[in-house]
Structure formats: structure tokens, C-alpha cells
């Protein structure tokens, strides 16, 4: 197995957390006090240091199941958006500049001809009828996610915001979460990019068929992910798990990222305490994953643009919480 579930990760420093909470017991700052204590515990020091190198890492990939026509977005949307992000455009760069963060795009499996150290394949198999990736591709996606996390931590990132990009990514996330939580397809899917009733029916049937393909196999989570996830989602899982292993706090965004955190906790126990929920989206899979992780989002702005944008909207709260506690 590529993920080791036998040795739980070290948790944030509980003694530091209690010291931080006690120091602000009469401050009247509510959840900001708890949030600042989480930052301090992750850093292992009180008072907490200011968060000065917050980094958004957007994992991009397309999904063969999207070819069934379940999105109002055209298939080429992901590649175009990725190009905009690389040029410094798009909502993620605007919000990152406002919040004092920087952005990195990792093209894992977008549907175009490209190759490099961060690429796994061009798009994926359609998970309702075929496997998303091969065993070798799965292993490569895990390695990429881990390597990117190590690179960011080694370069000085003190908080990581994983983001997602790709047409069909909420469908894939919903199928995977539905399989692991035994949730019916109609209860795990949401509006995604905004869909009609007919597109909703297509989405439900695709998720149902994907879940049927892995029935009875959730005892081997890596195989479930290989068959009905995607390289970009697998890389996200590995990225979040490795960030936790490197004792670096993670601020979660929407449904695909939070489902990835749920999977990271399942495959690498001890990941969840290093995560904070930035926001809540209208996606049912997002709420289900948050409840499983026992996380309460900081804001609820109905942002489902992905790319880490919702988490970026909450980032000023995290930074302010740390500075309040240090004052």
C-alpha cells in the first residue's frame, strides 16, 4: 500500500493549544480564540507566529465522465482556466493577492497534450464504465502530491490551501464519497457548476454506475480511488496527508478538497487535526465530508468556484486569529 494507516500521525501540540485557550479565556473573541489556538498548536509554540507564507496549490485535472454531458461548462474550460491562472488571472489570483497569499498550479491530468514531472495522464477513464487510471498512474499521482507538499513546506510555506480545478470534479468527489459512506447518489450530489434537471439525472446515473463498479471493495480504499477517482483527486489526498505529516496547517476549500481531506484521514490517520474548514458550499458531499471530519466551516458564502477561492475568503480570519492571540 502507498498509504500507511498503521502509524497515526503526530497531532498538533495539545499543551500549547490549552495554554493558548487559557490565555484568551476572557477575551470575548469566540471562535477566533479557538482558531488562533489551532494555529499555535500546529506551530507548537505560544504565542503563535504570524502566518506570512500562505500558499495556494491548485491541482488540475479533467475527467472522462464529464463527456457524458453533465456540466454546463464546455470540456475545454479547465485548460483555459488553468492558462488564466498561470498568467496571474482568475478569481484565485485576485483573492490570493487580497489575502496576501501566493498561487501555484499543478497540471496533473488536464485534457491536453503536455508532459512533465507533475503530469500523470491526459484526462481519465469514464468512471461509470471504466477505471480512472492504471496502478502505475495511481502511484505516480500519489508521488506527485507528496512531492509538491514537500516542496512547499521546504520553501517555507506556513499554511497550505489546496485547490481543485476541472470539469466533472464534483461528480468524481461525490462518487468516491458516496462509495465510502454508503450515501445514495441523489443525496450526495449538488449543483456543481449549475445544471438543469436533465443534466442532474445524467449526473445521478453516472455516480450510481461508478459506485456500483466498486461495491464491496471499500475495504481496499486505494483500489477504489484508482478505479473511480482521478489523478488530480489522488494527488490532493497525498498532498494533504503529507502536509499533515510535515506538521503544516491546511485550510480546506470546497467539496473535492474536503473529500480529499476525508480520504487522507482514512488512509493516513491523524491528518484531520491539521485541517481547518475554510468555507461551506452548496454541495451535499461537502457537508457530509465536513461532518465526518468533525470540522465547522469559518464562512458560508456559497462559493463553489473551486481553486481554493472559498478558503482564501476565510484566510484573513485565520491570520487575524493568530495575531489576536499573539497580541
UniProtKB/TrEMBL annotation:
Domain of life: Bacteria
Stored SUPFAM superfamilies: Nicotinate mononucleotide:5,6-dimethylbenzimidazole phosphoribosyltransferase (CobT) (SSF52733)
Record EC number: 2.4.2.21
CDD domains with a match to the protein in the record: DMB-PRT_CobT (cd02439)
Keyword Cytoplasm: no
GO molecular function, one term: nicotinate-nucleotide-dimethylbenzimidazole phosphoribosyltransferase activity
Top EC class, one word: transferase
InterPro entries recorded: Nict_dMeBzImd_PRibTrfase, Nict_dMeBzImd_PRibTrfase_sf
Keywords: Glycosyltransferase, Transferase
Pfam hit, one: DBI_PRT
Keyword Transferase: yes
Protein name: Nicotinate-nucleotide--dimethylbenzimidazole phosphoribosyltransferase
Amino acid at each position: 500500500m502507498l498509504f500507511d494507516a498503521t502509524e497515526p500521525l503526530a497531532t498538533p501540540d495539545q499543551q500549547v493549544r490549552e495554554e493558548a485557550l487559557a490565555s484568551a479565556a476572557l477575551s470575548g473573541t469566540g471562535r477566533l480564540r479557538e482558531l488562533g489556538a489551532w494555529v499555535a498548536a500546529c506551530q507548537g509554540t505560544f504565542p503563535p507566529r504570524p502566518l506570512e507564507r500562505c500558499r495556494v496549490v491548485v491541482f488540475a485535472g479533467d475527467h472522462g465522465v464529464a463527456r457524458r454531458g453533465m456540466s454546463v461548462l464546455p470540456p475545454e474550460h479547465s485548460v483555459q482556466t488553468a492558462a488564466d491562472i498561470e498568467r496571474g488571472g482568475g478569481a484565485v489570483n485576485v483573492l490570493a493577492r487580497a489575502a496576501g497569499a501566493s498561487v501555484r498550479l499543478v497540471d496533473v491530468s488536464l485534457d491536453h497534450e503536455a508532459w512533465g514531472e507533475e503530469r500523470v495522464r491526459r484526462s481519465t477513464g469514464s468512471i461509470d464504465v471504466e477505471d480512472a487510471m492504471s496502478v502505475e498512474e495511481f502511484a505516480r499521482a500519489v508521488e506527485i502530491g507528496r512531492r509538491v507538499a514537500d516542496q512547499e513546506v521546504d520553501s517555507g510555506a506556513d499554511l497550505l490551501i489546496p485547490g481543485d480545478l476541472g470539469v466533472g470534479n464534483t461528480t468524481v468527489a461525490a462518487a468516491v464519497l458516496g462509495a465510502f459512506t454508503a450515501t445514495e447518489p441523489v443525496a450526495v450530489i449538488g449543483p456543481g457548476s449549475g445544471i438543469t434537471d436533465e443534466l442532474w439525472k445524467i449526473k445521478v446515473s453516472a455516480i450510481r454506475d461508478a459506485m456500483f463498479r466498486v461495491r464491496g471493495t471499500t475495504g481496499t480504499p486505494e483500489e477504489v480511488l484508482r478505479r473511480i477517482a482521478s489523478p488530480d483527486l489522488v494527488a490532493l489526498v497525498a498532498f494533504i496527508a503529507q502536509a499533515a505529516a510535515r506538521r503544516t496547517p491546511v485550510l480546506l476549500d470546497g467539496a473535492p478538497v474536503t473529500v480529499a481531506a476525508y480520504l487522507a484521514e482514512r488512509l493516513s490517520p491523524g491528518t484531520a487535526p491539521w485541517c481547518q474548514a475554510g468555507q461551506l458550499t452548496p454541495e451535499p458531499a461537502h457537508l457530509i465530508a465536513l461532518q465526518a471530519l468533525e470540522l465547522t466551516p469559518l464562512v458560508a458564502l456559497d462559493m463553489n468556484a473551486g481553486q481554493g477561492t472559498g478558503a482564501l475568503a476565510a484566510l484573513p480570519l485565520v491570520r487575524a486569529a493568530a495575531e489576536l492571540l499573539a497580541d
